[in-house]
Amino acid sequence: MRVPRFDPTSVWLQGLGLFLVGSVVGAVAIMLAYQLNFSLVMSDNLRLIDENRKLKEDLDSARKLTARRSVVTKIDVRVETRDDTALDQLARDELKRLVEAELKLFKGKSASILGNPEYDQIIEQIIRRIYIVGSTQYLVEMRTIAVLNDELRVWVTARPHVGGETSR
Prior knowledge:
Residues 74-158 form the Sporulation membrane protein YtrI C-terminal domain. This protein is α+β, with helices and mostly antiparallel strands. The chain is built from 3 helices and 4 strands. It has a 4-stranded mixed sheet with strand order 1-4-3-2. Strand 2 (128-133) and strand 3 (136-148) form a beta hairpin.
């Protein structure tokens, strides 16, 4: 019995193997590009949803309080970092949202209320506080509070919380 030659078959098998490897590598490259694009779209979507929520709240409060003067209608929180510790944008936005939620009780109140002793206690509780974003704890310290026109502006510094530190 005669054994067939495998020379022509081996060339075809090598070509087929090279084609299959190229297909897999190409599919991986396309999937990486797709995942990166999807991640960017999702982060933009979350940012836009948060911005939309804030604008709707500002519009609602502006409609309610247009007749009254020297009333806090907007709360603007600015999150900064003290050291070279960098916060990602999602953590920064979430911390901003949490601090705005804490200060929401000042919305619709007179700007002179910040000197009231009852509200001073609330501000003292917020001055240095630990917030949990995802699985990370952040120590947020209030640096400056200012009322400009009808807007309450608050500057806070945030950094990852180390277990040995305590909050007031």
